[in-house]
Amino acid sequence: MTHARAERAALTDLLDRLGPDAPTLCAGWTTADLTAHLVLRERRPDAAGGIAIKPLAGYTASVQNKIKTGRSYPELVDAVRQGPPRWSPYGFLPGMDDLVNTLEFLVHHEDVRRAQPGWQPRELPADLTEALWKRVSAGARLMLRKAPVGVVLRLPDGRKAGGKKAEPHVIVTGEPVELLMFAFGRQEHARVTYEGDQPSVDRLRTAALGL
After folding, report:
1. Alpha-carbon distance 26 to 50, whole Å?
2. pLDDT score at 37
3. Is 77 in contact with 15 (CB distance < 8 Å)?
4. Residue 78, number of CB atoms within 10 A of its CB
5. Are 14 and 113 within 8 A, CB to CB?
6. Residue 30 DSSP code
7. Structural domains in the chain, sorted by start
8. What confidence tens digit (pLDDT) does each residue in 93-145 have?
9. Which residues have C-beta within 8 Å of that of residue 115, sequence separation ≥ 6?
10. Which residue of 4, 11, 53, 163 shows the fewest CB atoms closer than 10 Å?
11. What sequence ranges are listed for the domain Mycothiol-dependent maleylpyruvate isomerase metal-binding (predicted)?
C-alpha cells in the first residue's frame, strides 16, 4: 500500500469514528466540511479551482456546501475512501495519487487528529519521514513566501532548508511532519522550536503561511 492510500484509509476511519460535527484545524470547518472538500477535489474538477484561486473561491464554496448537504455523511466518507474515479487526473495518471495525495491526506489527517483533545504525534515510517523532508525542503520557498521574516527549516539532526531569504530570520526546528504542518500554516499545532529575536518569532507564529 502506498503512503497516500494508507493516509487516506486512516483519515476515513477517523472521520467515521468522529462523525460529521467534530472540529478540524481548517478554520471554520467541521469534519463534514473537510470531507466535502476532499470529495470536491477529486470528483468536481470544474469547481476545484477556487481551492487555490481566490476569485473562484465563492463558486468552490457553493459547490462544496451542496456536496455536504446533498449526501449523507457516511456516503461522503465512503466516496473519499474509495479514492478518485478513473476519469479523475488522480485516477488515471500513473503515480499521480502518490505524488499529489500523500501530502494532502497526511496534512488533513493531522488536521483532524490535532483538533481533538489529548492528541500526540504519530511515529511515521522512516521512508515516509524522509520523503516528507524532501518535499518540505523542495517546497519551502513557495510555502513560506508570505512569511514576514526570513525562515530556515532545520531537522533535529542538523540538516537545513532555506524557506525565505530575509533578515531578520528565524530558525524553525522539528521533525519533517512538524515542519510540514508549520509550513502549511498550522503553526499553533506544530511541535517545533524557534530561534530568533522574539518580535520576529511572534510575527512568524501568527503569519498566514502555506500555499
Report:
1. 16
2. 96
3. yes
4. 15
5. yes
6. B
7. 3-113 (no CATH), 128-205 (3.30.1050.20)
8. 667 778 889 999 999 999 999 999 999 999 999 999 999 999 999 999 999 99
9. 22, 23, 24, 25, 189
10. 53
11. 5-44
Task: Give this prediction's pTM.
Answer: 0.92
Cell (9 digits) for 83: 479514492
* Residue in 15, 19, 125 with CA at minimum distance from that of residue 81: 15
The total number of residues written for the chain in this structure: 211
Query: Are β-strands 169-173 and 150-154 bridged in parallel, bridged antiparallel, or unpaired?
Result: parallel
- Is the CB of residue 98 less than 8 Å from the CB of residue 2? yes
- The set of residues, in sequence order, having a beta carbon less than 8 Å from that of 2 and lying 6+ positions away, is 97, 98, 102
